[in-house]
Amino acid sequence: MSLSFDPKSVALPTGHFIGGTYVSGPAEIDVVAPSDGRGLAAIPTADVGVVDQAVQAAKAALVTSGWASVRPRERVRALHAWADLIEAEAQTLARIEAVASSRPIAEALPGDVMIAAEQIRFFAEFADKECGDLVPTSDGQMGFIASEPYGVVGAITAWNVPLALAGWKLGPALAAGNAVVLKPSEMTPFSTLYLAELSVRAGLPAGLINIVLGDGPTTGAALVAHPEIGKISFTGSTRAGAAIMENIARTGIKPMTLELGGKSPQLVFADADLDLAAQCIARGILGNAGQGCVAGSRVIAAREIADELSDRIAARMQAIAPGPTWEETSTYSPIISERQLQRIDGIVDAARAGGADVLCGGARIEREGTFYQPTILARVAGGSVALAEEIFGPVLTLQPFDTEEEALELSRHPTYGLCSGLFTRDLSRTMRMVRKLEAGAVWVNRYGRSRDHILPTGGWKASGLGKDLGREAYLANRRTKSVLIDL
Ligand code: NAD
Predict the structure, then answer these.
(1) Are 46 and 20 part of one and the same domain?
(2) Which of 156, 163, 182, 413 to mutate to test the pocket of ligand 1 (most atoms within 8 A of CB)?
(3) Cβ-contact 263, 413 below 8 angstroms
(4) What is the C-alpha separation between 22 and 146, in angstroms, rounded?
């Protein structure tokens, strides 16, 4: 059966989801399909009052369901039931995702939807396995470290992979015994709403997951500042992450995890399997048209193979299939908005004006929607925006190196440290480089996360604070209590 579908046939939920029901409000923010620019729906903006309503619904759900204090296996069972329903409703969820985001249906169905279900299952299993510690004390005492949930966790997500990000946030927070108020991006809010609706239909207590719609400065800021939110879990840009830190410092201290931007290097040595490197690098920047935090946008290649490598990457870039995200044959994503496309084009133009060679691409794709050609820039002037800033588009820069030290020096970014790619067949060099690369993740002879959710993700430097995924994400949703008893 074909995966293609008529975008007008997809019903989109448009209200806040509070206490298990949709709550409407004045339609204020227009959401547009990037594939063809069609207006899809307008969503309301949750102000301080609506955010408070969601927090109170979350608190009430915790009290009436006893979610934090039930036998932990009960939480595991309930979360698996939700994941079952997500899988059963995969087609509907994937269509909602595809119609209103940059995710092509052929990727959203087996990828984003199934990954969200998998993450919920993965985190569910921590609920009845993660233990406290009995600590060494004198015989006259007993000391142990217990842990408890925060209560209501506030989560805010970016627009680029909405379902996967919702899974990252909701899975660990709920497994750890919290309720959640989540604000998805105002650009791609619909699939997160439906995910929350499915949780109630699967039997999770109404109010355990609440979704508030709106922009960052109004809704996001109100959520962060709410005094009864115990912890903030954020994914988005470094700029917004800094605004959240400032807000938290001003309105009351609370823990936060921040998953932020990147400008990740991929180092290719002369002994590497060049075909493998070209394939991984192309895939790493073509996926979601480069609109991924982990996009490996800076290629740093040994001088003797740099030309051949860029030719091989460029050849793979020719094989893209741009098209509406609701067509099964489309594998290349649109840029999320006209504004963002203009920004990408402006950065490429500025690099060109500064003397860079545009080895391929360098312009919008002339067709309906906001599509940009995969682009490789060489001889980019040091200090140019193309090298310094996260572009969040399908643009690679290429820099040659002569020595291992020079490769390392080029790989270091003053601000970002999210991840790094390394291509070499030399084991000793691999181990030397793995130790020295300044990033929260290093991928060797591959590029990108796998579906092994046990590996935490999170950046160094201004790429983040704390981790998502892995055991660390579960633990970040509980707070420890040190207990000492005089016997
Ligand atoms: P963004 O920072 O503009 O928005 C992210 C979310 O934050 C949105 O929901 C937005 O409404 C909200 N927001 C904005 N300002 C806020 C404020 N002052 N207070 C509270 N909330 C606020 O980012 P985006 O354009 O949606 O996403 C792209 C960015 O996200 C890129 O920088 C990308 O690297 C990053 N990202 C990081 C990861 C990761 O795991 N490190 C994953 C995905 C995306």
Answers:
(1) yes
(2) 156
(3) yes
(4) 37
Q: Does any ligand 1 atom lie closer than 6 A to the CB of residue 101? A: no
AA identity, residue 255: P
Q: Which residues are catalytic?
A: 259, 293
List b or e across 10-21, with b for residues whose CB sees 16 or more CB atoms inside 10 angstroms: bebbbbbbbbbe
State which residues form the domain around 48. Answer: 7-260+464-486
pLDDT tens figures, 131-146: 999 999 999 999 999 9
Contact 291, 102 (CB under 8 A): yes
Beta bridge partners of 21: 18
Ligand 1 site, residue 310, Cβ cutoff 6 A: no
Model confidence pLDDT, tens digit, residues 182-216: 999 999 999 999 999 999 999 999 999 999 999 99
Helix H or strand E encompassing 40: strand 39-43
Whether residue 376 sits in one domain with residue 423: yes
Per DSSP, the three-state class of 116 is helix
CB 324 within 8 A of CB 407: no
Q: Among candidates 341, 463, 421, 416, which has minimal Cα distance to 34?
A: 341
Ramachandran region, residue 252 (left: φ > 0; alpha: ψ -120 to 50; beta: rest): left
Same domain membership, residue 335 and residue 280? yes
| 96 & 186 share domain | yes
Strand partners, 357: 378
The token duo for 98 is 């595809």
